[in-house]
Amino acid sequence: MAGLSLEAVAATADTSVAYLSKVETGKLIPTNVYVAKVTAVIAARLRDAA
């Protein structure tokens, strides 16, 4: 994930690594709010890296 660990994304998005991992592997379907929150974390990291 854009050079981010699951731990870093989970901590910043205020979620658990276990839940994020299940979403990433398709074992859980996230809500739109969850997707927006995680996307915002990753987008911010990409902006900071640019």
UniProtKB/TrEMBL annotation:
Tell me what this protein is called. Answer: Helix-turn-helix transcriptional regulator
Coiled-coil blocks:
none
Spell out the SUPFAM superfamilies in the cross-references. Answer: lambda repressor-like DNA-binding domains
In this protein, which residues make up the domain named HTH cro/C1-type?
2-37
Q: Which organism is it from?
A: Curtobacterium flaccumfaciens pv. flaccumfaciens
**Top-rank lineage group of the source organism:** Bacteria
Q: A GO molecular-function term, please?
A: DNA binding
